[in-house]
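LOG
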Amino acid sequence: MQKLKKYLFVLSIAGIASAGCKQPAAGSRRPAEAAVAAGEIGSHLPVFVVKDLQGRKISSADVLGKIVLIDFWATWCQPCRKEMPGYQALLDQYGPRGFAVIGFKLDTMADPEDPLEFAHNIGVRYPLAGASGDLKQKFGGIEGLPTTLLYDRQGILRKKVIGFESTEAFESAVKQLLSAPN
């Protein structure tokens, strides 16, 4: 009986001591961190290929390695009309340093004017394409207009604004990304 008590005592001490020493099984890994949802800060520029409003192909591959401003807009959106010329000015100034702008037109309401005439009248020359439902979902869905997304050279979303934002605020972000090491 004495031997049995001693054996059980040693066995229970060994069990208690090893309880906090559990090692992961060989080859097991920590669960991967959840991916960042499309359209959220830290998400990646989605892969897309679309025709612009003049029928030319534009794609995410065209802007690889560049800082990219994606602007969702509409001809009936007054804040869009106000901020789009500022994006053109940023492109004119910083395009040679690796900055690109693409505008995606929403069609949730009828256009009061031809989109190409609209762009011409406000001095916008950057690529403009229609935003299909699939494209909008690739960018995480569009909750309001304008929606502006700014991606770094690695294609990571660094700034997102729903609604009007001054050109100066985007210029500051663009300059910071241009000066960041590659």
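LOG (cont.) second protein
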Amino acid sequence: MALTLVYSVTGLKVRDEVNTDGDTNANAVVQTYWKVVGTDEAGQTADWAGATPFTAANVPAGSFAAFDTLTEDNVLAWITAVVEGDAQYKAHIIGQLEKQIDELVTSEPALPWAEEVTPQEDAPEADDLDLP
């Protein structure tokens, strides 16, 4: 089944990191939390949560994006680069989404050859009977 994927960022962790040039990248994003929603051709959806670590240790100060200038699109580009860059990881995510969707559209009916059991009304208690 082909899925359309939509990613969103649900959280970030930051800290000051010193890069390899000895410059401090203030409030560098070091952890991302995100969610991806997969939608199949029939409109069924499933979601999966992920967490991806990052480091700014190799980012020169001139290329570093300050935290307050980041957009969700910036961070999603980092995350999707990691997911898309690892075919096995992406296949795992797709597999989990497909499994959830399969469970949504799978039912567990009664066996067609089994007799239908009709619940009986509770029998009256002996104290409730009018006996002489």
